[in-house]
Amino acid sequence: MRLKIQILACSDNIVRYMQSSNLELCRKLIKMVRGKVEMKRIENATSRQVTFSKRRNGVMKKAYELSVLCDAQVAIIIFSHKGKLYEFSSSSMQKTIDRYREYAKEKQMNSNTFEVVQHMEHLREETANIAKRIEILEISKRKLLGQGIGSCSMNELQEINNQLDRSLKKIRARKFQLFKDEIRRLKDRERLLLEENARLSEKVVGEG
Predict the structure, then answer these.
(1) Distances in Å between the alpha carbon of 26 and those of 8, 15, 108?
(2) Number of other residues whose CB lies within 10 A of the CB of residue 29
(3) What is the mean pLDDT of the chain?
(4) Can you tell me the distance from the alpha carbon of 12 to that of 26, in angstroms, rounded to the nearest whole number?
(5) Rounded-to-integer distance, Cα 129 and Cα 108, Å
(6) Which H or E run includes 161?
């Protein structure tokens, strides 16, 4: 009931503004009464067909106006839900399609070229970083060998000494591990030889 009263009030306002020749406000009030169209599929087949025809004609009209007013090359292709074709072109449809394909092809090529350039730039940066790391490692290696240390500060020399100590510890640990492995291998070999010797002795005694 309240909605009905509001609509009647709007209608009264429309009549009053029309009488006063205020067309702009009339349009606004009419839109208020109509409301917004909900963007979803129209279930009723008749209403859907009517809306399709109206909207299709409106799109075609706008396309024609755009081509004339702005000297633009415009092409529209529409298929209805039954598969019927509707089209508009300000010039030749085929020429417009060919132009679009050529533009899309060129755009794709430009995109691929940009990606290749980006990849090459990434490779150059990575190569430069690797070269810098190699140079740092070479300098560190020479210093550990006692080369090029004349310009080293006391802190740098202390760091080199610490690195040497750590290296020596690792070398000693590795050497100790190798000794242990070798001793274990020799003990295993000794055990196998003793077992083999015992087996042969038993065989000789048995044959005697």
Answers:
(1) 14, 8, 50
(2) 19
(3) 79
(4) 11
(5) 32
(6) helix 154-207
Task: Tell which wins on pLDDT, 23 or 60.
Answer: 60
Name which residue leads in pLDDT, 115 or 15: 115
pLDDT at 35: 56
Q: pTM of the predicted model, to two decimals?
A: 0.40
8: its two tokens: 């009647």
What average pLDDT does range 13-38 have in this prediction?
54
pLDDT of residue 146: 73
Q: How many CB atoms lie within 10 A of CB 75?
A: 19
Helix, strand, coil percentages, rounded to 5, for the chain: 80, 5, 15
- Closest among 54, 59, 49, 55 to 88, alpha carbons compared: 59
Q: Kindly state the average pLDDT of the residues 14-33.
A: 52
Q: How far is the C-alpha of 7 from the C-alpha of 35, rounded, in Å? A: 11
Where do we find the tokens 């509707």? 86
Distance, in Å, from the CA atom of 49 to the CA atom of 84, rounded to the nearest integer, reads 12
142: CB partners within 8 A, 6+ apart: 148
Please give the pLDDT value at position 113.
Answer: 81
* Alpha helix (H) residue ranges in 20-92: 23-34, 45-70
Question: DSSP state, 44?
Answer: S
Task: List the structure tokens of 21.
Answer: 């020749």
- Residues contacting residue 11 through CB under 8 Å, at least 6 positions apart: 33
In single-letter form, the type of residue at position 202 comes to E
CA distances from 3 to 27, 176, 194 (A): 20, 95, 110
- The token pair that represents 124 in the structure block: 């150059």
